[in-house]
Amino acid sequence: MGRPSLVTVVARPLLAATFVNGGWRSLRDPAGLIGLARKAGVPAADVAVPATSAAMVGGGVALSLGIAPVTSAATLTACLAGATYGVHGFWREQEPGPRAIHRAALLTNVAVAAGLLLVAADARARG
Fold first, then answer.
1. What's the burial of 47, exposed, middle or buried (CB within 10 Å: 0-12/13-18/19+)?
2. HEC readout, 94-112
3. Tens digits of residue pLDDT in 20-52
4. pTM value?
């Protein structure tokens, strides 16, 4: 098993920070996201939001520390996909301003997902 490069060691916590921060904020005050999730039709939003938030914190901390990076990246990718659908569904917006904001957020989240895929691929390549 090869050692991770310095770039990987630095990039993992930088990538994970947004998940730890967002998940922690949502755990402390979930009401707003629960409302958005309900509006988007997420079943059991009052359970799904805190569960996703906890997974984001746990997965982010694990990824930062290099613990099970493939599993951590996969967990965070799943959280990102669910949160993106529930919060940034630009197709649900009729007004151009909010629609553009949510489209940009969705594309940002797609880019973050690409970073998570790269982390997982790097970890798999090192064995």
1. exposed
2. CCHHHHHHHHHHHHHHHHH
3. 999 999 999 999 999 988 988 889 999 999 999
4. 0.89
